[in-house]
Amino acid sequence: MGREKVARFRDRDYWAKPVPGFGDPAGRILLVGLAPGAHGSNRTGRMFTGDGSGDFLYAALHAVGLASAPVARDRADGMQLTDAYISAVVRCAPPANRPTPEERDRCLPFLARELTLLRSVRVVVGLGAFGWDGALRALAAEGIVLPRPRPRFGHGAEVRIEPYTVLGAFHPSQQNTFTGRLTAPMFEAVLRRAVELAAA
């Protein structure tokens, strides 16, 4: 999905292939998003980089001490994460930003494998209901028994699923941030809780 460019990026080359996870491989906090944004990660090749969702996310990560800068524009901007890693349930930009169950299931093994390789992770933050669901599916795919009834998503939701704690946060999409459904203090509160739990 790199052929359909917006006017402001018409002269840019798009990454337009699966977007890998990004961050500190020894991080104790894993953030799980939905999928690469069509003109953000799909263009830049780095998770949550180059669009409004990423602007909101990195500003919050920087505010709580997990990111080296409050803004992420491209892969060469020097951004570094400390104690955090960002991934997504789906690795390619889906049409209309709506992944199908088939896309989710096809990409899920990558998230599950990533979780296994990130040996220091203690806290998983599901961004939005899709990220929350994908995180739980990845845990189950790795043989972790989920509680019954299945934990429900909510902003600030918290559930212990050994050896992890899973937190929920509204996705930092502009649909949420522009409407005030998600504010910077709300998002930072979840990230501060993640930092607190990771240090425990």
Total domain modules: 1
**Looking at CATH, which topology would you report?**
Uracil-DNA Glycosylase, subunit E
CATH architecture classification name: 3-Layer(aba) Sandwich
Strand order in space, largest sheet: 1-3-2-4-6-5
The number of helical segments is 6
CATH class: Alpha Beta
Quick check: average pLDDT? Answer: 92
Strand proportion, as a percent range, falls in 5-15%
Overall spatial form: globular
Radius of gyration over C-alpha positions, nearest whole angstrom: 16 Å
What string, H for helix and E for strand, traces the elements in order? EEHHEHEHEEHH
Biggest beta-sheet profile? 6 strands, mixed
Structural class: alpha/beta
What distance lies between the first and last C-alpha atoms, to the nearest angstrom? 42 Å
Give the name of the CATH superfamily. Uracil-DNA glycosylase-like domain
Low-confidence stretches: none
Helix content: 25-40%
* SS elements, strand count: 6
General description of the model:
By secondary structure, the chain is α/β, with parallel strands linked by helices. The model has no long low-confidence stretch (mean pLDDT 92). The longest helix is centred in the middle third of the chain and has 17 residues, at 101-117. Strands 1-3-2-4-6-5 form a 6-stranded mixed beta sheet. The protein has helices at residues 41-44, 52-63, 101-117, 128-141, 174-177, 184-199, and strands spanning 22-23, 29-33, 84-88, 123-127, 158-161, 164-169.
Descriptors:
single chain, 200 residues, alpha/beta, Uracil-DNA Glycosylase, subunit E, 6-stranded mixed beta sheet, 6 helices, 6 strands, globular
